[in-house]
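Quick one: structure for this chain?
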Amino acid sequence: MDPNDTAPACDSCELSLDRRRFLQGVGFASLAVLAGLGVPRGVALAMTPVPTRARRLLAGNPTYPIPAADGVQIDHDQEVILVRWQGAIYAFNLSCPHQRTALRWNEGAGQFQCPKHHSKYRPDGTFVSGRATRGMDRFSMTRAGNEVVVDVNAMHKEDHDQAGWDTAVLHV
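Got it. Here's what it folds into:
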């Protein structure tokens, strides 16, 4: 501790939680709420977004383990959303294509939603409703063994690159 620092140390403070413990608590609370609403545990687990980090960078591109089951993983550091849904894997830009606000996963509705103007998207990034005029921006991906390599320099916008957008998917 810096002797010139007058702020009290919080290392032993009971209210001090590290990020991982906080997120685990939020995840468990979400599962409890979903269970209370009668949502089966397996469905609730698949629909609860999991904060994730890239396993490593490969030529500047983040890599992630291939998800074992349907679900949503959000990497805020790399601004990537990784989704496994109905036998396919998608990698999306975290930002809404309308005004670049970070998208959120709406567990109850099973879709992404922009908190700013309420645009909604299916798990495959298809636009449903709201002010946006196109689907979520997809990244190209490749499979490397048991990992997905997301090419963050190859982003496909549905209205400008429909063919690239349609093929930016891995089937598992």
